[in-house]
Amino acid sequence: MKSGLSKRLGKLFIEITVIVCLLIQTVLFVGSNPSTHAAESTANLPNPRFPSEMQKAMKEAEAILLKGEGFSDWAALAFVRNGTPLPEGYLESKGNEILERKGKYDSASELSLAIMAYSAAGGKAHQVAGINLMQKLVNRTDMEDEGSYGVSLAYLAYLFYSTNNYYRPLWYSDLFFNRLNETRLASGSWPSSGDRFDEVSTTLVAVSALKASGDIPKSYDGEKIAAWLKTLIKGNGSINQSTADTANAIMLLSAVDADAADFHLTDGDNPLRFIMSNRLSEGGFSETLGGELDPNATLQAYLALTNYKLILEGKPGLLSGWRHSDPKTVTVRVEGPKGTIASGSSTGVTAHDAVKSFLERDNIAYAMTKKKIVSVNGIKEHQYGGDEAWRFAVEANAYYDFQPECSNGEERLNDGDLIILYYGASNMPCNVGFQVEYIAGDGTLRDTNSIPHHTPMILHVKKPKITSEGTSTENGSFITVDINGKKVATDAEGKVEVGGLKAGAYDFVFTGYQAGGVPTILKTIIHVRVVSTLDEFKDRDEVSSWAANEVASALSNGYLQGINSAGDLLAPKKGLTRAEFVAMLLRVRKQTTSTEQGRVFTDVPSKKWYSDVVNKAAELGITDRVRGEFEPNRNITREEAAIMLANAGALNTYGTLDRLHLSDIEDLPGNSLKAIQAVNEHGIMTGSEGEFMPKETLIREQAAAVLARLEIFLYRDKFFGYYDYFK
Length: 727
What we know:
Blueprint: H1 2-27, H2 52-67, H3 73-82, H4 90-101, H5 108-120, H6 133-138, H7 147-160, H8 173-182, H9 199-213, H10 216-219, H11 222-230, H12 243-255, H13 271-277, H14 295-312, E1 328-335, E2 340-348, H15 351-361, E3 366-369, E4 372-376, E5 379-380, E6 389-395, E7 405-407, E8 418-424, E9 435-439, E10 445-447, E11 451-452, E12 457-467, E13 470-475, E14 480-483, E15 486-489, E16 495-498, E17 504-511, E18 524-531, H16 548-556, H17 578-588, H18 611-619, H19 638-649, H20 670-681, H21 700-714, H22 723-726
Parallel strand pairs: 1-8, 11-18
Antiparallel strand pairs: 1-2, 3-4, 4-5, 6-7, 6-8, 9-10, 9-12, 12-13, 12-16, 14-15, 14-17, 17-18
């Protein structure tokens, strides 16, 4: 009996010993060097699969990465996802890098990573002082030089920063997707890309991009990839005995929905335990067991732990969990049945967002039913007994007069779009098909993009017509045309005679208001250039050679005019008054001078030629001051011009001021410094020989040059490929 009891006690003792050992094994991370590795219990943690030791390792890695030389863009992505503040000035230093390079990077992967990091830090990759990094990415001809890795990372950047601001792209979503599916190997992985990117890291980026695209069922076989990965893993849980390679494997496992903590060979260790065994007591990670601190190993381990933590929290992974959807800056116009109710700038991701924000900011009463705007300013649906309602139209930001397209209000916006909330019937299709041509003196029919000055013409207006067979056009009969404050009406054939106009930029405003009903057309504003050429001026030889092309451009666009009644003297070296410069800015901005704004400045009386011009500029926030005296007849200085240019173009700054290396601006006030930095970064006003000459008078040929450059920035779609050239 004693013998049986002894045996039972001995067996119990062995079982308890085994259980204790197993418990110890589950809570300890065992390293090869006990003096440099620590273990902690996870019993009281909310998620035992990510113990405090891992959290501490991440914080230590962050401290080392911050101290390192050159903060990594990969680290920036992980810092943002972890909610850790980026190094002070990171966004500006990244802006400096982009400006110095003019957005030109040696490889697609380098550009892709710059886009992702800059965007994650709060920048706009499609607008860095006029440089569109996304446009450069989707038009790279060397996209496949880095194999599947370069294509995958570019696809990630494409999905990361989704926008429609691409002009004739060589690469687009379907091409990225199809190319990756074509290059997948039988093992389920993607091939290495030369010596730079191994098979694991390439597969990681490819899977992350395909997962982010949303087409998971067609994209990859997670089980096959996990099986392939198991053939690479060693008994100690590593790949190539490397912290960096193993960290990529951990991220790839998460991407295919496998848990690295459960992933190991029979009687082997797992990848998480391996990288933690290379954690150093002073913080950071070694690349191999028993090695010294390695910056790349520390970075890769940090990325892997970040990704693992995000997955355990039920969040998307580090690479696939991005979608850049920052609000866009747009113009909103609210058109009622009798006229324009309000207009101004707003921001939003969709047209609906931007309009709601605008109405609320300007205290304009509106009502909604099931996310639909049904009343504005007391004007309700079906007010005239038909199907009239509040509807959306969106006009893309472009130089030419693209017509607004009907919208449900939910499309994603781009910077510079015009959003029109209008009250109309269903047979008023956003003016698609609205046309205006003019009959020249020789009887030919021409468009209104460019009209010679002092040339009489006949406008011919056509409006859209909806029938059961579709949409067509018909003569725009009895439509009111407002040209420079003078209103005339088209006849039954949609025609109206217009006398010759002097050179300049004009707005032809077409309306179809009618008593007791909705308008026959959506109020349409067509920007018309009445032009002259440099050869027409007697003093054309006085124009400096460096300014000749830009003066000619300003004349052909109607921004610059002659100074005498005959219109044949240009006076290129003459100073420009503040009122004259504001008038030119409004022409570039295609703004009418009609304004509800009362008198703003004490020295701008009514009924002067510049009264409405200055008041409209103040209303739009273009002027360099908002009250007091404007000094309309004093010559404008380069400093003042810089401020107004920055306001007119809504120019932001991206780098740091010291990058400009201008010796004569340090004593200027802050708003002047910011404006000078903005116009310099955009290449609109740069100064000469290390000086900006802020107090010198801006002369007419200089004004023509800066206006031509501002035009190129504002209407980049027209000048695709040229903006980088003049910068």
